């Protein structure tokens, strides 16, 4: 049997934490290893408990979830972060994802989908609620060409042709198997190209790569 996904729940509402503990604990393959009521507690708990995923609220006293995510994901060997919040302000979405969060869900997400999202983020797959996806698409349309597009294309210039092709497919939301089929590659080869692209660009995960491709206008 595989080891359960270890989760640290971070939310300033004790009732929310209790509810999430019950939901996740009932999944069988997910284990809540700890709780925190503020982002201030996250670094020490993450270092001690070694969770696979931190389920992070954004609006908390002291250190908020955005700052906590940035600090946590900047450290080597950091756990994945799945944001679960009641708010979806554009700036919060982009800042959380650019900081390295592997997913962004709203608190009205059905319990079964929250559990599934934890599993996916632990496996390195990006997860975005439909509302958040629509916002990101809208922001991309509104932004249009400009300095950000030029900077993004300049950064992507560090990739070779095949890595760029794979990055574009990641930006389209393709899983490794989908990308392999589209580009006539093996799944291990796709994984190698994704890892190489992330390393060359100094990115933490596929979500950040997808955002960069989006900024560069390569999905137009």
UniProtKB/TrEMBL annotation:
The keyword Transcription regulation applies. InterPro entries: CheY-like_superfamily (IPR011006), NreC/VraR/RcsB-like_REC (IPR058245), Sig_transdc_resp-reg_C-effctor (IPR016032), Sig_transdc_resp-reg_receiver (IPR001789), Tscrpt_reg_LuxR_C (IPR000792), WalR-like (IPR039420). GO terms for molecular function: DNA binding. Residues 152-217 form the HTH luxR-type domain. The modification 4-aspartylphosphate is found at residue 57. Residues 6-122 form the Response regulatory domain. One of its GO terms (biological process) is regulation of DNA-templated transcription. SUPFAM superfamilies: C-terminal effector domain of the bipartite response regulators, CheY-like. Keywords: DNA-binding, Phosphoprotein, Transcription, Transcription regulation. This is Response regulator transcription factor. It comes from Glycomyces paridis.
């Amino acid at each position: 049997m595989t080891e359960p996904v270890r989760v640290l729940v971070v939310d300033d509402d004790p009732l929310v934490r209790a509810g999430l503990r019950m939901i996740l604990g009932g999944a069988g393959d997910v284990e809540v290893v700890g709780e925190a009521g503020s982002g201030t507690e996250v670094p020490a708990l993450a270092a001690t408990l070694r969770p696979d995923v931190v389920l992070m609220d954004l609006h908390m006293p002291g250190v908020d979830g955005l700052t906590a995510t940035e600090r946590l994901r900047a450290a080597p060997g950091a756990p994945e972060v799945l944001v679960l919040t009641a708010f979806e302000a554009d700036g919060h979405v982009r800042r959380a994802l650019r900081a390295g969060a592997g997913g962004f869900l709203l608190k009205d997400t059905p319990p079964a989908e929250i559990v599934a999202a934890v599993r996916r983020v632990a496996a390195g797959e990006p997860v975005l609620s439909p509302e958040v996806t629509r916002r990101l698409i809208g922001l991309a349309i509104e932004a249009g060409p400009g300095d950000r597009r030029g900077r993004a294309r300049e950064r992507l210039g560090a990739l070779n042709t095949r890595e760029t092709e794979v990055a574009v497919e990641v930006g389209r939301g393709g899983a490794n198997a989908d990308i392999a089929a589209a580009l006539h590659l093996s799944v291990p080869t796709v994984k190698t190209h994704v890892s190489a692209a992330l390393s060359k660009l100094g990115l933490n995960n596929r979500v950040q790569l997808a955002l960069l491709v989006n900024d560069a206008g390569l999905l137009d």
